[in-house]
Amino acid sequence: MAAPVSVQGRNLPSWTRGAPRAAAVVALLAWSLFPILWIVLTSLKTRLEILADEPVFWFTPTLDAYRRTLFSPGAGVLSDLLNSVGITMASTVATILVAGLAAYSLARFAFRGKGPVLTFILASRLLPPISAVIPLFLLFSTFGLIDTHAALILVYTALNAPFAAWLLKSFFEGVPKELEEAAELDGCSALGAFFRVTMRLAAPGIVATGIITGNMAWNEFLFAFMFTSVDATTLPLALAELKGGEQIAWQDLGARATLLMLPALTVGLWSQKYLVSGLTAGSLK
Amino acid sequence: MTVAHTPGGPAARSRRPSGDGRWAAILLAVPVLGLVVFYLWPLIRTAILSVSTGNPFLGYQITGFDNWVQVLTGDELPRALLNTLVYAAVVLLGVPLAMIAAVLLHQRGLRFRGLFRVLYFLPVVTMPAAVAMVWRYIYNGDFGLLNEVLATMGLPTTAWVADPRTALYAVAVVGIWMGLGTNLIILAAGLEAIPDSVTEAAMLDGAGPVRRFASITAPLLSPSVFLVSVLSVIGSLQMFDLLFVMLGRTNPALADSKTIVYLFYEEAFVRSDRPLGAVIALVTLVVTLIVTAIQFRLQRRWVHYA
């Protein structure tokens, strides 16, 4: 860093200049981390420690709440987990396929109607999901799809596809067309060139899109809440319907919330680079 | 990540025009079918339903604008609209917060910068329903952390999410919390895109940190700030899960804190009045369009495109 610029900085020891900045960074960090930390702590407490008048920070952790949440009969978290995993994976794969087709043709071909398709993809963000809820509910009822995995897989794919197409288009455009043409000159078929060249080079972008899409499907609440009841309920619903008012067993809820956050946190941290690149690409024109 | 310009300019396009059109049509068939089935048709169906009467068992007939009159002249919708706009306005305060965070993290010489970025980023991947539950506990009137801390400092306490005066704001604070990570990522990318040479030139001209921020960083970052604001407001107008999980159905504050999507849920699913639900859904769409249009109009005053 260059020499100090501000006037007051010149007379003070060097560490004090960074101090306000460091304090601000730490304060913001506490703001974004503390709630997560607090619920994890809560999940490890006993009922007495939770009902104490003062917040308890030091205590002997216990895993009782996790045992109850996971293994008590009728807890239902495990079946929700299976539903969530299945629905998220299926809808993510379907989104990438559908959006990938659209994105590739938008990135590579000129055709009539390209303008309207692009406009629509951007405008779809303005369309509130609830404007589709009732017709889709009626449609799915007709076909007996309410409370099935298929309903949510279809809805999530449709919901995420426009955004995914927008992202993938920018990633495909990042692969020079000349590379594909070179591969074709070297004897590749058009399809072969696509899979061996474009797909391979756009792979990080495809992963990023998949992770953002998956994250949205994993966390989605509105449609899951309205379109499922017993068989296809997903994890976000496992916390929604609470009984007992203020008599809630907070340590059990803490365990449940921690378990729900864990998979996305793990995948999210592991794939942070991809997520960031995807969100960034989505924000540029 | 930078986005390349469209490769293969006009020359590449004109090489095989007929083939292009055919391939594009084949590739786009499924996506376009999806658009029609999941976007266009539901919208038309909702519009028709909003001017119909009937019930789920006997079907619906078009009868006129009675539903619209009923919703627009009732007292629930204006209240829900106001609540939703207040919520969106409060959550918008998260944008300056994200700006501060982005600028702090952007400075060179900050140790553990990568680690900080990762940690700020955590709320992006935490499940909203779980987050809502966490905060419901923090806000709890009897053994919530917030009240325990306030009590030790001798400050007044309340049951934050059960008190009609505070519930909506308490939920909005969580909205700010959840939005920080995504906003930060987009703004950080905007900051990266500002050339160092510009800031350095200002530094050589004697501009202090405050001046540099006001005259250089803020204007150059304004397109990203605008984008983040638009996305934040659109998201806020569609808020449902936070409110539903944090307040619960039997909450005494619920009547005064309903958002427009919550009202939709009550009409269309609790009372099973689909036509009234359809009206509310379309009102949401219109409000989203109007608010976004206003933002685009206002951007001329403060957004600088280089």
Automatic annotation (TrEMBL), chain A:
Keywords: Cell membrane, Membrane, Transmembrane, Transmembrane helix, Transport. The keyword DNA repair does not apply. It holds the Pfam family BPD_transp_1. InterPro entries: BP-dep_ABC_trans_perm (IPR050901), MetI-like (IPR000515), MetI-like_sf (IPR035906). Residues 81-271 form the ABC transmembrane type-1 domain. CDD domains: TM_PBP2. Belongs to the binding-protein-dependent transport system permease family. This is Carbohydrate ABC transporter permease. The lineage of its organism: Bacteria, Bacillati, Actinomycetota, Actinomycetes, Micrococcales.
Automatic annotation (TrEMBL), chain B:
Keywords: Cell membrane, Membrane, Transmembrane, Transmembrane helix, Transport. Residues 80-295 form the ABC transmembrane type-1 domain. PROSITE patterns: ABC_TM1. The chain crosses the membrane at residues 23-44, 85-106, 118-138, 167-191, 212-237, 276-296. Its main location: membrane. It is a multi-pass membrane protein. SUPFAM superfamilies: MetI-like. It is found in: Cell membrane. Belongs to the binding-protein-dependent transport system permease family. This is Sugar ABC transporter permease. It comes from Occultella gossypii.
